[in-house]
Amino acid sequence: MGSLQVSLYLGDLFDDNSVAIVPHDESLLPAIWALCSDESYHDKVRAIDKALKVRGPLVEVPFDLAHWRKVAEGKYPHGLPEPFSSDPRQWLFSGRPSDSDQPLHVAVARLLGYQWPRQTGSSFPDCPALAPDGLEKFGDEDGIVCLSATKGETSAAERLRVALVQALGKFDISALIGTAGPNGSKSKTLDDWLRDEFFEQHCALFEHRPFIWHIWDGNKNGFGALVNYHKLSHANLEKLAYAYLGDWIRRQKDAVDAGEAGSDARWQAAKQLQTHLKLILEGEPPYDLFVRWKPLSKQAIGWHPDINDGVRMNIRPFANADILRKRVKIKWEKDRGKEPTRDKKDFPWFWGWDEEKQDFAGVGKEPDGNRWNNCHYTNEFRRSKRNA
Description:
- The chain is mostly helical.
- The protein has three domains: 1-81, no CATH class; 97-241, no CATH class; 296-386, no CATH class.
- Helix content is 34%, strand content 5%.
- It is built from 13 helices and five strands.
- It has helices at 29-36, 40-46, 65-75, 103-111, 156-168, 173-178, 190-196, 198-205, 234-257, 263-282, 311-314, 316-321, 379-386; strands at 144-146, 212-216, 224-228, 335-338, 370-371.
- The strands form two sheets. It has a three-stranded antiparallel beta sheet with strand order 1-3-2, sandwiched between helices.
- β2 and β3 (224-228) form a beta hairpin.
- α4 crosses α5 and α9 packs antiparallel against α10 (263-282).
- The radius of gyration is 25 Å and the shape is globular.
- The relative contact order is 0.07.
């Protein structure tokens, strides 16, 4: 809302923080779009109203119809374009690296098996669902791609390079890396970029709600893996901890026995990472999942996330374990607003949580409705509520 983003309206329901500008005369639409999509529109609105949420002033700006008709005729001689977005943050985006403002980031997502809505059967007005584009064969089945060659799979950089050839044909790898992310990159190779910069850029691009997670052991030369969070089931997290990471640990132990320099530090770091992953699988505090809008009887026990609860809720155990390549800019303190009255037995955190107590069961006779997100409950306490 702060920057007054604008897009063509597709006719769907929208939140009341958004506004649809609908002309009485449809022939005026190109001129209105030319004005609203122009960089000057933001400043014209803000000259009238500087509030975060704006409604009326959106149509109170000066509107020189003759001028904006001329602009529209020059920009859209064949009429307004069909809906399209090269921004991978938008649902309209095709999922093809060649169509993207961020081809390298899109290629990584496709390598991890991620697909955009139009690739999974969703369609929009004048914007049909998309047929396969040939990159599906590069998508990893379990959504886990290790940075180093592991368990018979080549390194992430090698796999990404092969996918890029299919997606882009000829390409300048230096230019791709140099323009990756919001502010570009200084990495010289794909391996360096994936290891050192990808995750931080990915977080920034997707508004600090990353769907590709870089899990690592804290050793720059140690174990690291990119995982598609949408595929990170309990079984796949076990696979990461015991198959992929387990293979790495065995290889580092062999290197230690052979007296290889630096191998002991890599071995110790990898074993510590495996310990953290085991704790997340078990789900005891502070590695538990907590979703404030679900009753205690429906809270997960161990790593059994509900993707519909969102990244913010589900990434918390990994952030608490400090095993993500960069710290995520996500907070779990109280959200704004108050919750409607909820049953104390099912939703005790709405009944006076003190911001500290674990296994909080509620106090007081009246709910305060505070929307806490950082509560912790033991598996034993959760099971007792399921069996109650």
